[in-house]
Amino acid sequence: MSSDEDNHACSCGKGLTRRQFLTSAGAGALIVTASGHLGKDQEVSAAVIKSGEGTKITLLINGKQFQMLVEPRWSLLHVLREELGFTATKEGCGRGECGACTVLIDGMPRYACMTLAVEAEGVEITTVEGLMRGEDLGPVQKAFVEHDAFQCGYCTPGQIMAVEGLLRKEPDPTVEQIRQGVSGNLCRCGAYTHIINAARRAAEMKKSGAV
Amino acid sequence: MTPGFSYRRAASIKDAVTGLSEGNGRILAGGTDLLGCLRDSVFTTDMVVSITGIKELKRIDETPGGGLSIGALATITEVSENPVIRERYPALAQAAAEVASPQLRNQGTLGGNLCQKPRCWYYRGEFHCLRKGGDRCYAVAGENHYHCIFGGKGCYIVHPSDTAPALIAYGAEATIAGPAGMRKVSLENFFVPPAKDVTKETVLEAGEIVTAIVLPPPLAGLKSFYRKIRSRQSWDFALAGVALAIRTSNGRVTDARIVLSGAAPIPWRLVDAEKALIGKVAGPDSAKHTAALSIKDAQPLKHNAYKIPLFKGMIEEEVANISQA
Ligand SMILES: Cc1cc2nc3c(=O)[nH]c(=O)nc-3n(C[C@H](O)[C@H](O)[C@H](O)COP(=O)(O)OP(=O)(O)OC[C@H]3O[C@@H](n4cnc5c(N)ncnc54)[C@H](O)[C@@H]3O)c2cc1C
Ligand code: SF4
Ligand code: FES
Ligand code: FES
Question: What is the atom index within ligand 4 of the atom nearest the CA of A189?
Fold first, then answer.
């Protein structure tokens, strides 16, 4: 994207200010964890869950287990935001087209809007809240702040998760690999140049351990 | 919010087949297409049968005969990165790498990619068109920039899959499980053209699921390639794409497959152009001839004639390149 697009005003109605982003990214889990028992090797049985009925599931989010009742049709995005208060993960299109809802599942970026909550049992889910190091921002978050890699900030949590996922797989990506890595994350403010710079910086920070 | 449905987590292939036969069941693999269709009311279902717990569907195994069997649940990322696929079936790895976005590749499966619904915007929108059982096609006189130039009859979709043309170029076969047991269908015959049945995309019958895609051993010396042209740099479906698999001996073409994406309601094999290429000296002249033959039956709609020079140029370039490679 050309850099003059960086100057366009953001057109997404639900925009967040930078401060709000930092606050929400730092808020961490709002829900007290419950202890669960389902692990990776959960038994698969031919259970049927009726439409509209709740079933108890356990999700492993940012290293903590959460138990809750979910309906079959609920997306992971809905559960994260509306049931558990992980509101850093955003809803944009709800159709797999924008990337605002990107989370890591077993370390790989995926769209939470296209994942059913009942399908997310037994895997490790990571949201932006999970990248915090105590009260401090993680390296990718820091790099985004340093490089002004957002304007309205709405796409930012998704961009950060896409970059985090990329760096876990490819610690030293080329610019082309970074472009590829964030190609599933649209930014209506056109902050792409800064996002790519932030991703490069994040890779350096992670490598040098200077966080 | 997605309309409600019951959910069944199938423990085995048999269990999935049983589950599908109750009500109007739909398979859930990665969910990237199914959930979109349900949210956009393209169809409804009262039973979603998840096959993601069936471990054997995730395997990628070499077959005793030297081919490769790819489980229906292998993700697109896995297909694009698998070392055996990259080495022996490079066009498939290239096609998989061109699918959608990283997130969707991590999540979407090969089976789902082949069974996904078309992307015609009338079909995805609130139009009760022919393919949905209505009485007309809205695209034929409407916004048809991204519709087909070959094989349209009643309906003018393009087949959305990037992996399908590559698989067909290698002569792959789908293994299908259903109430009557297992069957195999050449992938070339797996897709249903609108002239045959405008409401179906695949030959799958009620209760059937794709369990694996089996690739024959690659021919010695076969060169293959997939190229996709799209209108946006980030993610997009193919405006025009071509999977090529060509073998030469002493400079002459002995085997050729040319299969297009973005061209027709099914992955479009150019049988005449392939035939004409066989026996020719591989090079710029035969590439030019092949390209001219490729588009001779094109029937563009009002807004998509631009695809003809696009395909022609692309085919000429790639046939020439692959001959020289
Ligand atoms: C924004 C966006 C962009 C995209 N761009 C591209 C692109 O550029 N190129 C491309 O090729 N694709 C593209 N796709 C399509 C995407 O690749 C498919 O959605 C994905 O591969 C489907 O796999 P899935 O496992 O998620 O399928 P699901 O959504 O789970 O299933 C898709 C359909 O197939 C059926 N099904 C699934 N598995 C089986 C099986 N084993 N047997 C029988 N039926 C089955 C389901 O019932 C459903 O109807 C795009 C999708 C989106 C949302
Ligand atoms: S092209 Fe096919 S899917 Fe699109 S409106 Fe016409 S009949 Fe429907
Ligand atoms: S909200 Fe999930 S991709 Fe847009
Ligand atoms: S959408 Fe506003 S910063 Fe990306």
Answer: 2
